Amino acid sequence: MIEIEKLQLYYGEFQALKNIRLSIPERSITAFIGPSGCGKSTLLRTLNRMNDSIPGVRIEGRVELQGKDIYSADTEVESLRKRVGMVFQQPNPFPKSIYDNVAYGPRLHGKLKKADLDELVERSLRAASLWEEVKDNLKKSALGLSGGQQQRLCIARALAVEPEVLLMDESTSALDPISTTKIEELTRELSRSYTIVMVTHNMHQAARISDRTVFFLNGEVVEAADTQMLFSSPVDQRTEDYISGRFG
Amino acid sequence: MNLPASEVRSAPAAKERRIPKHLAEEWRGRTYVYLCVLIMIVTIFSIVYFIASRGLAPFISHGVSVSEMMFGLEWRPDGEPAVFGALPFLFGSFSTSLLAAVIAAPLGLCASLFMTEIMPKLGKTVLQPGIELLAGIPSVVYGFVGLSVIVPFLRDVFPGLGVGVLAGSLVLSIMILPTVTTVSTDALRSLPRGLKEGSMALGATRWQTISRIILPTLLPSLLTGVVLGIARAFGEALAVQMVIGNAPHIPHSLFESAATLTSIITLSMGNTTSGSLHNNALWSLALMLLLMTFVFVFVVRMLERRVKR
């Protein structure tokens, strides 16, 4: 699904990602783990080109989505982001109604009939398992929802543009344990139809829900393997030290 | 005063009588702050009282009716009998400051968008200090520039003498530009980063993000800037007086001379004797200005409450 080849990323003089090679399989959860500042979030944000707007960023190498380089000159960043959705660390609903939050993306990309839009909003909210909780309050402000509900709304909002890939940047780290469990279950569920890449600083979360895990250290991929393999019999000594809690 | 700690401890009797040092300090500090506040409150109330007592005198002791003052079209303080209709000035004040806001609001908003969203670095280092500098230029300088640049230009291009409502509005709009820009820039900077990223991540372009997320979210804050600008324009006297022509009538076009509440006060104040009807009538105009200021403050408060929600 996503093939990353010889990717180098510099913030000015500082090299944040070094020679990354990675392939991310379709319809599964790939988790990026590693200590703070290891480059896992930076790599995630190169996948939908959210780093573009940061001044001083320079990128070399290739990132291919379905065989096409997303950094090529003829890639339109808006249509890329329509295909690669993102959920952030802090829930960031717009100060609009629940309905308008979900409808925001579809409205950007074209005019839909009212009935079609209604249907899309419902489908997205159902997919984010939020529909039952909000179906009577679609016109209410999204800011009145709890943190966990807001995060599921952000997932629904991302799903509404019908992406292929969903990036989740520590999307549960600002939530309480119950909301976290809900999002984790939801993520598992979604991985049946979407390719999910998640960054987490919680190793246990990676072990619990991901199919593949990639361990980063100092801007490099140390090890990438099936989650079970990586946690039960890591190949690299540094991986073993990290997952057994000897640093980080 | 500065007893060593050991001595205080060894003399418990003295300790009871003596106020501990930190409490004395607390008390002194509090007294000082309360005193300052008291002075401020007394000053404000005296000013309001003074303006009100003088400004109400024409109605109470000279038999001028409120409706004549508010809606009268003629201002003839030297006439027989003297007539005090302040509607032309009210009209002049409102039309110049609102028109100034109409001109300055889009300019200020675009300037602040440019400084925060499009070129933040240049904005912070060059443009913002530049615009703040505009706020520090004395109003007489604005008036002078208006008189030597804007008025001749208007006289050449449009019918009339150049002085008038439009000249006043243009000068005012430049004067309130810093207020509008600074308030909107602060509002834009305070926007949570997540909102913008959330919109961009859904495939919105920068302009879509600005028009669909940023502006609606910040609307109350942006309006606050505009209202503060109007309030400043409404109270500005000197610069307007220099370019508006000061004719006490309601103008029929933007290029005709007019007068504002403030300009007529500054023009006439020196020519009247304290306590005379004419002098008191000018105080009535000042009272109207004061009341309008209250309204502006109230509107800004309402908008701020909406921001917090």
Automatic annotation (TrEMBL), chain B:
<feature type="transmembrane region" description="Helical">
    <location>
        <begin position="213"/>
        <end position="234"/>
    </location>
</feature>
<keyword id="KW-1003">Cell membrane</keyword>
<feature type="transmembrane region" description="Helical">
    <location>
        <begin position="98"/>
        <end position="119"/>
    </location>
</feature>
<feature type="transmembrane region" description="Helical">
    <location>
        <begin position="31"/>
        <end position="52"/>
    </location>
</feature>
<feature type="transmembrane region" description="Helical">
    <location>
        <begin position="131"/>
        <end position="154"/>
    </location>
</feature>
<protein>
    <recommendedName>
        <fullName>Phosphate transport system permease protein</fullName>
    </recommendedName>
</protein>
<comment type="function">
    <text>Part of the binding-protein-dependent transport system for phosphate; probably responsible for the translocation of the substrate across the membrane.</text>
</comment>
<feature type="transmembrane region" description="Helical">
    <location>
        <begin position="281"/>
        <end position="303"/>
    </location>
</feature>
<dbReference type="InterPro" id="IPR000515">
    <property type="entry name" value="MetI-like"/>
</dbReference>
<dbReference type="GO" id="GO:0005886">
    <property type="term" value="C:plasma membrane"/>
</dbReference>
<comment type="similarity">
    <text>Belongs to the binding-protein-dependent transport system permease family. CysTW subfamily.</text>
</comment>
<keyword id="KW-0813">Transport</keyword>
<dbReference type="InterPro" id="IPR035906">
    <property type="entry name" value="MetI-like_sf"/>
</dbReference>
<keyword id="KW-0812">Transmembrane</keyword>
<keyword id="KW-1133">Transmembrane helix</keyword>
<dbReference type="GO" id="GO:0005315">
    <property type="term" value="F:phosphate transmembrane transporter activity"/>
</dbReference>
<feature type="transmembrane region" description="Helical">
    <location>
        <begin position="160"/>
        <end position="183"/>
    </location>
</feature>
<keyword id="KW-0472">Membrane</keyword>
<dbReference type="InterPro" id="IPR011864">
    <property type="entry name" value="Phosphate_PstC"/>
</dbReference>
<dbReference type="GO" id="GO:0006817">
    <property type="term" value="P:phosphate ion transport"/>
</dbReference>
<feature type="domain" description="ABC transmembrane type-1">
    <location>
        <begin position="90"/>
        <end position="300"/>
    </location>
</feature>
<keyword id="KW-0592">Phosphate transport</keyword>
<dbReference type="Pfam" id="PF00528">
    <property type="entry name" value="BPD_transp_1"/>
</dbReference>
<dbReference type="InterPro" id="IPR051124">
    <property type="entry name" value="Phosphate_Transport_Permease"/>
</dbReference>
